[in-house]
């Protein structure tokens, strides 16, 4: 069953699409932080997959009113404020997570965040600022340098969440230096983290052509390439990771 978790923050109305499992009672929640296109069909279908596994699947509405900028230039312009002020973005992530935890269908102690592309960066920010979630997964995330992060991330804030990073080795958006800086940062915080590099995979390797809004808009994003093998491996890693975290709470 699909519905929305709604609230307001800083004068903006947010509507986070929700897909609920069939069982009654509070369930673990998977919060999906989408790429810069927002609440796409791909993000919603991923939430449906998690609901079929028995979880509440929630797509985080980054822009308000379940916004979805369709082209690359429009999406790039829309996401820029989130990157320009990481402190304000972290505050927004906290507000959204708190609101989702208040939902009666969500078990607030069993929440995992999965971010894609820019959403992967934000999932890592959620972890590195010590937010109270079980786990954070960066799935072909954008690994940003540490020169514009808010003070809580510059300090060695303890990481409560377990962290999983899944990256295509040929992802041109993530240089090796950024990955090294991320793992060094997680290590200095004594975080429970793991990194999986998938050989041959590029950025957005799980997006088929029919799911890729840039291709559907007539663009030719050569840095993006669907990879079925990489997607199968990455999805299996996510399911295994989430199950491991949930098993710890039973």
TL;DR?
With 250 residues, the chain is an alpha/beta fold.
Question: What attributes characterize this protein structure?
Answer:
Rossmann fold, alpha/beta, 250 residues
Q: CATH superfamily membership, which one?
A: Alpha/Beta hydrolase fold, catalytic domain
- How many beta-strand segments? 8
What can be said about the biggest beta sheet?
8 strands, mixed
- Please estimate the helix content: 25-40%
The rounded Rg comes to 17 Å
Order of helices and strands: EEEHEHHEHEHEHEHH
CATH class (first level) name:
Alpha Beta
Oligomer: single chain
Q: What's the CATH topology name?
A: Rossmann fold
Return the CATH architecture: 3-Layer(aba) Sandwich
Global structural class: alpha/beta
Gross geometry: globular
Poorly predicted sequence stretches spanning 5 or more consecutive residues: none
Q: CA-to-CA gap between the ends?
A: 26 Å
* Number of H/I helices: 8
Question: Biggest sheet: strands side by side, in what order?
Answer: 1-2-4-3-5-6-7-8
What is the arithmetic mean of pLDDT? Answer: 91
Folded structure, characterized:
This protein is of the alpha/beta class and 250 residues long. Helices cover 38% and strands 24% of the residues. The model has no long low-confidence stretch (mean pLDDT 91). The protein has 8 helices and 8 strands. The chain has an 8-stranded mixed sheet, sandwiched between helices. Helix 5 (151-154) links the parallel strand 6 and strand 7. The chain has a single domain, classed as Alpha/Beta hydrolase fold, catalytic domain (Rossmann fold).
